[in-house]
Amino acid sequence: MGSSAETGIPHLETEDLFGDQKKRVRNPLVPIGALLTAGVLTAGLVSFRQGNSQLGQKLMRARVVVQGATVALMVGTAYYYGEKL
């Protein structure tokens, strides 16, 4: 392999790519929301497969609500901490 000068690709350090790690804020509720979304989706798909379409439909609607709440939490966290950093 040639050097980055030969390929025309600039050499970037890890800090250039990811920036200062101290600025990152993690919200522990977002992974919980993602897991809840996946769990409700799985339960809905299983109920559809077993032939219980009414329960499956209710679970799919619940998945939309849980997924929307998770996205709202992500946006709210980004907005809240985005102004402070």
Write the layout of secondary structure elements.
Elements: H1 4-7, H2 14-18, H3 29-49, H4 53-84
Helix pairs in contact: 3-4
Short description:
The chain is an all-alpha fold. It has helices at 4-7, 14-18, 29-49, 53-84. α3 runs antiparallel to α4 (53-84).
Description:
- This protein is mostly helical.
- The chain has four helices and no strands.
- The protein has a domain of 58 residues.
- The radius of gyration is 21 Å and the shape is flat.
- The chain starts with a helix and ends with a helix.
CA radius of gyration: 21 Å
Unreliable parts: none
Shape: flat
Average predicted local confidence, pLDDT: 81
Largest sheet geometry: none
Q: Assess the beta-strand content as a share of residues.
A: under 5%
Find the structural class using helix and strand composition.
Answer: mainly alpha
InterPro entries: Hypoxia_induced_domain (IPR007667), RCF1 (IPR050355)
Subcellular location: Mitochondrion membrane
Keywords: Membrane, Mitochondrion, Transmembrane, Transmembrane helix
Main location: mitochondrion
